[in-house]
Protein 1
Amino acid sequence: MPTRPDETDPSVPPEAGAPTGAPAALEAREVVKSFGGVHALRGADLLVRPGEVHALMGENGAGKSTLIKLLTGVYRPDDGVIALHGTERAFRTPLEAQAAGISTIYQEVNLVPMMSVARNLFLGREPRRRGLVDVRAMNRMSGEILERYGVRVDVTAPVHTLGLGARQMVALARAVRLDAKVVIMDEPTSSLEPREVQTLFGVIRTLREQGASVVFVSHRLDELYEICDRVTVLRDGRTVHTGAMAELPRTELVALMLGRALLAAHDGRVTAFAPDKAQRQAAPDDEALGELLPAARRKWGRGKDRDRQAGGPGGPGGPGGPALSISGLTDRHRLRGVSLDVEPGEVVGLGGLLGAGRSETAQAVIGARPATGAVKVGGKEIRRRSPQAAVRAGIAMLAEDRKADGVIPGLSVRENIVLAALPRLSRAGIVSTARQDRIVEFFMTRLRIKASSPAQLVQDLSGGNQQKVLLARWMCLNPRVLLLDEPTRGIDVGAKAEVQTIIDQLAAEGIGVLLISSELDELIEGSDRVVVLHTGSVAARLDGDEVTAPNLMRALAGEGSDSGAEAGLEAGLEAGLEAGLEFLEPPQTAEEGAS
Amino acid sequence: MTAAVLEPVDGAGTRDRVLDLAQRYGVYAALVVLIAVATAMNSDFMSVSNWRVQLFQVAPTVLVALGMALVIGTEGVDLSVGATIALAASIIPLYIGYGPAPAIVLALLLGAAAGLVGGAMVAFAGVQPIVATLSLMIGLRGLAELMNGAAAKPVEDPSILDLGEHGIAGVPVMAWIALAATGAVAYTVRRTTFGRQLVAIGDNKRASLLAGLPVRRVLVTVYVLSGILAALAGVLIVGHGAEADPANQGLNMELSAITAVVVGGTPLSGGRVRVLGTVAGAMFMQLASAVLIQHNVPTSTTQIVEAVLICLAVYVSRERGTR
């Protein structure tokens, strides 16, 4: 690699080596780190001022995690200086960094699943009375602490009974000591719902007011622009930009990270979805897939063929009616009569706040969650719902929790891709390696899965590549319906755009897609229609031109509560909207299932 | 996570890699070293008669350990295999009157039935494998003694005795059977849908379920296979000893089998089945104790050495990293 600075760099970080007034809360100067010949950092700078929220951006592999680990004493730099409040420091262990006032929250939640919430919060620093753990005090204090984070849970319940978001909050509460000078958050929001994100931001603002500095890593641009004061962008182990967050346009930020003007073609849009739904393109090598999976293709018929037969006896979508039809889905806690249809070749967005029942709907459809109500695929009802029956009927679900519900970590990319399709690739129970390898190669090329070989273990891949492996797993079943639960959560910008493009392609091939996303941009730009859930039932249905940020906001707001305004901060909205919210009548429409 | 690919090169990574290599190939290296040392110390060790004895001893363990490896691959354990051996043994003298083939088939069917019960408890009732098979372990041995009576019964059928005593090309029939079973199980794990699903379920059961895998069917099948393999071992043991002795046959076999699997490098956390490693593990434990006994080391010391070997194997194969 040449050491010549990249031509697209707008500026060399002005702050580096030239502190302005007060010493930086935390500073890294020209830090270098390599792992056996591989350079992770080639001279990165970071300057965090006291009392600011500082965004640290970069694609996967840019060196963000390495830099964070240098700052927190997990690694030591090969070269360069790390300074805390103007004093040069060399942390040898994470404990030393913590003692110096640097708290860290990692993307992966590290809690003891079988221990109670309170126990986890106070792990290693339990309040004691006469030498024994003072359980009562511990539980009371835990309740108080979590209250600040907007989490109301039974603190004596084991952590594994909590939802992902609540677990993240517990981890956060444990990591952030109130006397922390610098808090480093590595993708803290990747498993949070919009409302929880707002609670987190509340905590961050409190920290800022107390004069603490926060280093914030996230892939969600909306969040960065909302909470961060300044930003540092890393690329290929170097700092390529430092400046005020508000002065850096989104497209430029993304271009800085990717090193190319990726989003220029999207014309102000922030996702890679096709601007015009009618012009979704099928993947160019779609025919090749047809040859690879002839049996499956014959079974469902091609999407275009179905379109040609539109208006047939089955209904608007072609023979057999909608790809997926849900009616009156109800369970004991979360779902109260959810009904919706997905036509072939259509992307239906499923929106809603935390607890609205989006993931639960998807899980109930594939039978992973007990519920009453009817699920029809192509007009044919699935009688005894189970994931197996769902796969047989042509429904596939990309689960929200990639690690727990998606990948088989110890198996290779190859085996993860063909996992669900094994019976179709086998004769008399014996897997045809030739067919398997052809399919794996096809999908690794088509989805641009970056792995050293098909034999690489999935656990060693980046989040974005893991997600593509899971998409490939479902695509090689050639499903009729795809349920995508937060398909772009926690993956880098490049992979995100690729996944969005793939969703468009799948729709173009005639698959009915139900897209669950907490990102309004994704729902608005990716969906033909959006169905909004509120506390377990359908609150609104937005069609075509109605799918706009203000409309979606109103629907999410449900019965006019404040929570809608919180969630709305996700999107870049017109300023007047918040005021307008007060005058809205409850948009709760009549129960569709009842009619 | 972004630096995950780079991490193995770091300090702690080197140690992990050494341990990983030890887990994967350690048992073969240990086996070679053991044979070399034993031969150097005692020239009789490489004699045909010694190897015949060792193969007779190890063949039933290999059969049972193969089934155990499959069960452990699903993050389970089958403690009932020793009792299944006794059950299979006890049926032989009762039905040998109908001829050897029906008696053997019946014994294998009983083994399958025992596995079916254990597997159903695990897969459908959600009982922990250790509890389900522990109850079977107790119950089945009681059943075997009930059918056979507490005292040993002689078996004189020549076909069954041939299975336990004779050789083909100088190698015991038992060893040939174990070899064939090894090949079959290895093929099953690597090339069949069932084998691949088994490993996936052991690694991440929930994800496998959501991927539409027939989780329950696979789990039940695994325990049935383990039961059949244990019953087959029981038949061979009866042939070798020329008697059915349900009070003593197959005693502690579940532990020997687990040891062989663990020493062979299969992690108890599931998601991986090392078939050849399991066979090598069984061989290694057999030869190690034989060498110690041949050198007049007291049984008590032999047991302590075995314990150390097991600890060592578990240390190398324990779960590592951030999985």
Note: The CA atoms of residues 114 and 158 of chain A lie 5 Å apart.
Protein 2
Amino acid sequence: MSAIASQMTKNRSGILKVLQGSPVMGPLAALIIAIIFFATQSDRFLRGENLSLILQQTVVVGALAIGQTLVILTGGIDLSNGMIMALSSVLMAGLAVSSGVNPILAILMGFLVCIIFGVVNGSLVTRIGLPAFIVTLGTYNIAYALVRIYTTSTITNLPAPLLFFGQTFRVGSTEITYGSVLMVILYVIVWYVLRSTPWGRSVYAVGDNPEAARLAGINTNRVLTEVYTVAAITYGIAGLLLVSRTGVGDPQAGQTGNLDSITAVVIGGTSLLGGRGSIVGTLIGALIVGVFRNGLQLMGVGSIYQVLVTGILVIVAVSIDYLSHRRKA
Amino acid sequence: MSSSPSQGKVLLEMKNIGKTFPGVKALQGVSLTVREGQVHALLGENGAGKSTLIKILSGAYTKDEGEIFFEGKPVEIRGPQDAQALGISTIYQEFNLARDLTIGENIYLGHLPRKGFTVDWAQVRAGSQRILDRLGVALSPDTLTSTLSVAEQQLVEIAKALNRHTRILIMDEPSAVLGEKDLEKLFQVVRSLQAQGIGIIYISHRLKEIFELADEVTILKDGRYITTKQVADVTMDDLVKLMVGRDLKDVYPKRGLTPGAPLLKVNNLTRTKLVHDVSFDLNEGEIVGFAGITGSGRTEVARAIFGADPASGEMFIRGKPYKPSSPADAIRNGVALVTEDRKAQGLFLKQNVTINTTISGLKQLTRMGILQFGRENSLVKKMIQDLSIKTPGPEFMVVNMSGGNQQKVVLARWLSVGVRIFILDEPTRGIDVGSKSEIYQVMHDLTRQGAGVIMISSELPEVLGMSDRIMVMRQGTIAKQLSRAEASEEAIMKYAVGGEAA
């Protein structure tokens, strides 16, 4: 009898171990279950074109969530990311269309503005020591105001280079956008950098224990400033993806980008306290949100109920993560 | 007193307590008897099962086997409320005080007396004052907790426990956070609680205290009950042998190395209000001990040498001027600091052994900016072996390791960087005798290889056992330098407290 009991505890600790050992396993399991569920509910769900659509619907939030993950890993939070994206996207569109700037140059100028915002965010957090929440709440409003000062009307008739990432190529019968590919490549790069470089380690160390990181010889202020700046560059990429996906420069865009990206990050198992989490989890988190919205849509569920489900999803995902880690302690 | 503490009425009896965690038998057949007005010491290395036993008693864990009797009646403790109802209170090393509230508010936290819809502040004040008086503490109930010293906060914790009609008070290493000076006050308080008939379970790694305070001592090892002895019947050597199976004289390695070339020279190191004109030398192969009471400026000297805080004065390493602008700069110059507070300033608790070990030496483990995981892994495995770090493997999370093994991980971090000057601030605080001895051996080996060690310690036996020379600090300056031959506990204390208290 005790043999059975010990076997049972072994199995249970085995499952917990998998959940704790790799923080990605929980979200991944949820994603697979969601896919199986929706596949049984709708014949169209698993078709190539629908899966490609889910990916396309995920790219913008997916790109925003990369930067958000980096910031949250350091123990911060970035409320400004959606507005930085919006500002860069209307600048890219507006400069190219209204001001007649070379489209490539317009894109680069959009990125430049992102970098400035990133450096400002990072410097205020490190030099003055303000909480990231406050700093990015401020820059959120500043970026929002700048967008509306720059333009209040949607910018249309964009030149080709701005639309490139919305174009598709065929794999079999499925059309995939270049934007989807770019997002996946970005995830791979950031995953590799976080895993395999000293900089990646220092991001986790600073988020885990900033004082210990400093005393271990890490230049914590530099790491933090770099994180906010790199994050802002991913917001610029999100801006470019947004423009190419919608075909316009939209001054109304990006207002919920911060919360949508945080949703992807936390569903992906990254701790808001910093120091623990993974970029792969974030990609899975963004895909889970995308799969639920798309699947519910195919089932004919109204969009407001999709939001409802997203809310429940966040709470359930974080509860599971929290419980699995609390039990360990 | 009517009866001696070893014959007082039995308050608590724990019989054959067992507790199993997945894969680990944490406790097996452990028994403990506590009488009224008795100080019962609980002794054992880290991982011996003391914490598990305490947690069962305070309701944080439930036992799997065994029985608990309170005043002769069998009881079940299913949660903290059950323990509280029986009058069992625990004072942990980490305090549970609301820092922004007053002492009185903290003492009554959770059961503030009411007068209609409002709090009866008069009663809070009067009640708190009564308890503080009972403890012989000269503090006002209106004082803000955040302004208190660590020692005073501990007294507020004790007052809080008394306010809940405590019959049994569990004190988990209460002395670990105190300097020598505050220790005497703690002892007085414990004795007065004892005189009031409270049974006290006292956990400490400092054997000296057990002889000063305890009536009986129960020893645990590897989750098993070893024995219970009258303190009067045993010697310090007996206790160490029972605990670790080794003699006390073997705890400290034999020193007696001839110091080599000058390594570090510090001239007139000064930090406003904290450190004044501190000058000393450190030679290759030498351990220089820094003694003194808490707040005498030892930690501040260490942080200044490590570049963690700005300071004025001159420093030289091997004759070359040294002015660290940051810890990173100090590390490049071959200086390492092992901080006093491992968890707050040393470890990355959400990370594994590997990340904690190599974080300061990642540059050596990269090729073209990319980490070489193979090299990293073999380095960490070698460190685990060299320092006999007890861990299932490099992937194990440091948060689940004992204090001694965590400290070894921090040491491993610096050993793998190739540092020559080690500053160790309270290197064995809260660590069991077995691990202590291993850490001493590491320090000894380092100096044999030509490194220099600055060791800050509040444990006088450790200062005497390990140091080649001793700097006694008082009020931010070096009050006296003592050679190994001149040094004694009395001499150190004399200069540490100076004229004011001695």
Note: The mean pLDDT of chain A is 90.
